[in-house]
Prior knowledge:
Number of strands: 13
CATH superfamily of the largest domain: Nucleoside phosphorylase/phosphoribosyltransferase catalytic domain
Order of helices and strands: HHHHHEHEHHEHHEHEEHHHHEEHEEEHEE
Distance between the termini: 38 Å
CATH architecture of the largest domain: 3-Layer(aba) Sandwich
Bound molecules: uracil
Mean pLDDT: 95
Helix content: 40-55%
Shape: globular
CATH class of the largest domain: Alpha Beta
CATH topology of the largest domain: Pyrimidine Nucleoside Phosphorylase, Chain A, domain 2
Amino acid sequence: xxxxxxxxxxxxxxxxxxxxxxxxxxxxxxxxxxxxxxxxxxxxxxxxxxxxxxxxxxxxxxxxxxxxxxxxxxxxxxxxxxxxxxxxxxxxxxxxxxxxxxxxxxxxxxxxxxxxxxxxxxxxxxxxxxxxxxxxxxxxxxxxxxxxxxxxxxxxxxxxxxxxxxxxxxxxxxxxxxxxxxxxxxxxxxxxxxxxxxxxxxxxxxxxxxxxxxxxxxxxxxxxxxxxxxxxxxxxxxxxxxxxxxxxxxxxxxxxxxxxxxxxxxxxxxxxxxxxxxxxxxxxxxxxxxxxxxxxxxxxxxxxxxxxxxxxxxxxxxxxxxxxxxxxxxxxxxxxxxxxxxxxxxxxxxxxxxxxxxxxxxxxxxxxxxxxxxxxxxxxxxxxxxxxxxxxxxxxxxxxxxxxxxxxxxxxxxxxxxxxxxxxxxxxxxx
Length: 431
Ligand code: URA
């Protein structure tokens, strides 16, 4: 296999032989193919795509680049998992996990870090003082037995090809490509051994998939990869035209996830969390249907058992579950409504970028994260506001960054006369 020939073949719209494609990916994972050749190949894929057979071969090669886990065998249970394609204010796993675990279904999840304007669950969890994301596989299994849930970083040996490839894609404008996203996500889910997977495919201006049609294509491709591997897969296509919930920024999002676990979360986020939890429960070995899953998820929130699991889980990973322990930003700046009206738009990308500029995310992989900063969006699409009402609140490190972020957040809002149609948080389901 000569990488230059494969790049040329793809550039010209040809189809790779599965064995050759696997060789390219495995050689890249071993550092035998340089970044610049893989970057050129990714760009060729951007323009020419991959056939279903190539996408399967890529996913399979990514899995074979490292170890695989069988959490199901280790726990003697059917294991369920969830994953999001990434968005703004997306702290869903932090709230879903404790609810599902409180209903008696273990949820062991490998999460990622944020890059660009989308946040990562690991960065959010690290805003909790003492929280450890680096557990060994044995520690993770032990914690799943004792507490019922764990969220950890991807171990070095699980799909190492994706780790390298994702970092490369992030800096070469080759992230938003359906077969590459699908193989990246599904290789990690399949390698971690989940038998049933709920995928949250974000749609809208703050997501990689900007339209419902594109998101449906991604969902179908991921579902097919999962089904061919003998796994059950449901994709929830969910709104990312505005930030999810109110909080954007690491500690602020942990606070909101905890509030939601105890039944005090924003409506859109609560709905998504309960829907995802219900579907995971319906997939589990409890033998219940979706309605019963929803009923049990709601009961776990109402009776406080989900909050109890949340606290035990954070403790088990070395963190302090008291929300008072989360760092707070020294400067707060309210963003007032400039006029009376209805919020017709709240741009997710604009708010995500404002949070990133405050220091909540990374511009490059090496950047440190400021866990305390971010934005609280009090007014969401469809809300009526009066001039001077608080639209949002910026949490910043300095007056200067607060000023800039407040202007950017104000620009993310459009206030009009008539409420836009309310389509709910779940736009479609591919199951
Ligand atoms: N999340 C992933 O894990 N991979 C992608 O390519 C995009 C989102």
